[in-house]
Predict the structure.
Amino acid sequence: MFDKEYTFKGKHGFKVKSMVKRDQQSLSVQQKFPIFERNLDVYLIAPIVGFMYGRTSEIDNDPNYKPTDIFPQQLSENKANLLFNFHLIMLLAFKYEPDEKERINKAFNYYNNDKLKDDEILYNSYVLGGVDILYEKLIENSLTIEDCLNNLYDFIEDFDERYGEKVNKDDLSKLFLLADV
């Protein structure tokens, strides 16, 4: 796991490309103000977002959308962070596996084992669900850079309301100033 190329296919490929910095061929708002630097950055945050929001999605093989990849070297260089995400989700997936000892086995002991296949599918479904949420909340209705910033702010506030600590509005105001909007 995390040692071979990862491909976002179909609608998820489109969504990831919409959120990631690309060359200047596109003049869309998303390309002028990308949320993420690399596909890998989406792959690092998406499973946590998908899990926290309880959203999964299936692989979309729609050939009308061009896929986008994360190369093995990038995955290898970030394997510790990716494994941390996988372990965390397996440990917290109470609905998927109610038995605590089995969740621990899934997180740590079944690695590179046939039993891991179903867990990989579950993990990937959270990745894709997270891509859907990130796209919907940050990009989908953005027509201007200001829309992107407002969506980012709203997403942070929503996350805060759901999961805890208050958003420091002063820090976000400084972020907007730095964005020179």
